Each structure stands twice: as C-alpha cells, then as structure tokens.
C-alpha cells in the first residue's frame, strides 16, 4: 500500500491548545491534573472530547464499560477500522499528558485528514478507554481488559473504591454507561501513542520510541509478622522486628532485580506498617513487591527467589512470612507489521528514533491480545510521570503524533 507523503503533518498549535483545554478540567493542586475515573471531572472531560469529535464529523459509540469510540468513516463500509487512542483519566496527582496525548493525538489525526480532504479505505476510530490508571478502581487497564476478555464485565462492575462505591454504580451515575456489548468490535489494528514515563528517550536524545515489547509484571504481597514491643525497653537481641525483616527482604528484591540487568526491575511501592507508632517496634508489615521484565522466565525466576530467599531471611530472624500473588500479566510482543509501520513513519519523517521496551502497562498491552497492535512513545522531561510536574515539549508532542498519524493512515490505506 502507498505510504503517506512526508509533507503530511499535524497542526501542532491546535494539538497543544486541545491538550491545555482538556487540562483545565480537573486541575491538580500543583499544575497537573486530578481527573480520576468515573468522577464528575471525568464526565466533563468525556463531554468535551465528544463535542470535539462530533465537530470533526465523527459518530460516537459507547460500550457498557464506558469506552468511547469516535469513528471517521472510510470509503469501504465493510473494511475493518484502524483504532487509535489511549485514556483520559488521570492519577490523583497526575500530569497533563499521560494517556491524554494518545487520545487527543488521535483526534488531531482526524482533524488533519479533514483539513486536507484525505480519505482512507478503512474507517479510523479514536478510542478513550475507561479507567486505565486503576487508582480509584483496581486493577489498571480495567476496561481494555474487559474488552480483551481478560476480566468479566460483572467482576469489573463490582470493583469498589475507598468509599465503598462500585464501578458499575459510578459509571451509571456520571451518565457514561453505553449499551454496546464490550469487545464486540473487530479491529484491523490498534495504535497507541504515549509519553515514555521513563528517561531513556530524553537521555539518548531521540524523538521517537518504537515500542517493540511491553514488560510483564508480577505483584506479590508479602506479610511479615513479628512481635510489637517497646522501642526503648526491649533489648536488641530479644526483638522480633518485622520492619527490619522487611528491610532485609527489600534489599534482596533489589539484588534479585539487578541480577537480571538491564531490563528487569523490582521494588516495593505499597507498604503498611503496624502499629505504625513512633515508640513501638513493628509487629507486622504488609508490602507489595513489583517485579517487571520483558522475559516471562525472568519474572518466574524473580518470583521464585523472592519466596525462597525471603523465607530464609524470616526463618533466620524468627519471623513469620507469607506470600500472595495479587496481580500481574505476561510480557507483550507487539505486532511486527504495526511496529514496522511506526519505524518506517519515523524514518520517512526524519525523526530520530530507537526501539524501546515499555516499562509500564498500557491499554495496548491488553488490546494486543485481540488485534495487531503497536505503540509510539515520545520523551518526557526527566522521565517523570504520575506526577503533577510531568512535562513534554510541543516539539516532542508533534513528532509523536506525526509518526502516529503516518502509521495509522498507512494502515487505513489512503484513497487517491
């Protein structure tokens, strides 16, 4: 199929203005955003996105998980659509670009094609997946997971937030529960643009990351039990310090991940200490170890070593220890043809690029199970994300959407 001409580029000012207008909904306290899923702010952001899509001549579909699908018709109504998008929900202290760039970048593709009167044989559909972040309702990538058959809809509807409100009830409350069956849509391909959320592209001075794989993830909840006792009056040799046990296990987690350098990583992000008092030696700690790697055998090895070496530490210290796997997914290999389309687009447009493994989970990781999929990444300042200080340049945004557009349009087949 013919490739788009190298002069086909987006309107970067319009893209940036749209990003800033969306960022005005659900502003954070420090310059970012708090537009968590299924909140009133989420509903307002969705309404703005729908307004823009309809103004661009798209029809809007809505499924029972609240996933939004803005369709630009192709010349062949029977041709499978090419999908492009990401998510509009944010972390409680999130940035302006995580997910949003991918959705509004898809909209900018439609707007640019309209400006230039370009038609494609396959329809193009811009998608906003519900609850990618997973902060208010765990797990992350919830609705794309239902779409891909990873989770059941009933299970997803039953997820509960910190206030006891269910996903299903809140989706109905904000007015964004559709009637369309989830996962009924068939895709020719799916492309997702995202900020890197890491420092590699900026450090390597590359405009574009061509994402070939997504890391697999394993979450293991570890509970260590000792004995609460007074920090001042309990002799050192007579302590059963669960906090110290945790420290030694986390040192081992770091050692295990480093043994699989350079792509494996490991840490504990969620930690609860009991009774969490200044003058009481912890009698219990609960923490979640997050291991990631693009190699499933490496993840399995890290899990095995955590259990065996963690148990040895606990036994030596006279502590109890329990392990429970509470989440995870296998590594992802993205579609060769879609990846090649992204790489060719970057080369055609003259943008510097490199292959990249995504260290974070994305909707594309689930959609890859049901359709040919690839991701495009652009740099972010200092690799910072899930933080209100998250930042990108206009030039990075333009490069990312230019490459995204070329990959999407080539796959959708330009007419004429």
- Count of beta strands: 17
Largest sheet: 9 strands, mixed
What's the helical proportion of residues?
25-40%
- Shape, per Cα inertia axes: elongated
Number of helices in the DSSP assignment: 12
What is the average of the pLDDT values?
97
Which H/E pattern describes the elements?
A: HHEEEHEEHHHEHEEEHEEEHEEHEHEHE
Overall SS class: alpha+beta
Percent of sequence in beta strands: 15-25%
End-to-end separation: 12 Å
Weakly predicted, low-confidence segments: none
Calculate Rg over CA atoms: 23 Å
Which key terms come to mind for this protein?
single chain, 416 residues, alpha+beta, nine-stranded mixed β-sheet, four-stranded antiparallel β-sheet, 12 helices, 17 strands, elongated
What this model shows, in words?
By secondary structure, this protein is α+β, with helices and mostly antiparallel strands. 35% of the residues lie in helices and 23% in strands. The protein is built from twelve helices and 17 strands. The strands form four sheets. Strands 1, 2, 3, 5, 6, 7, 14, 15 and 16 form a nine-stranded mixed beta sheet that branches. Strands 10-12-8-13 form a four-stranded antiparallel beta sheet, with helices on one face. Strand 1 and strand 2 form a beta hairpin. Helix 1 runs antiparallel to helix 3, helix 3 crosses helix 12 and helix 10 crosses helix 12. The chain is elongated, with a radius of gyration of 23 Å. The termini are close together.
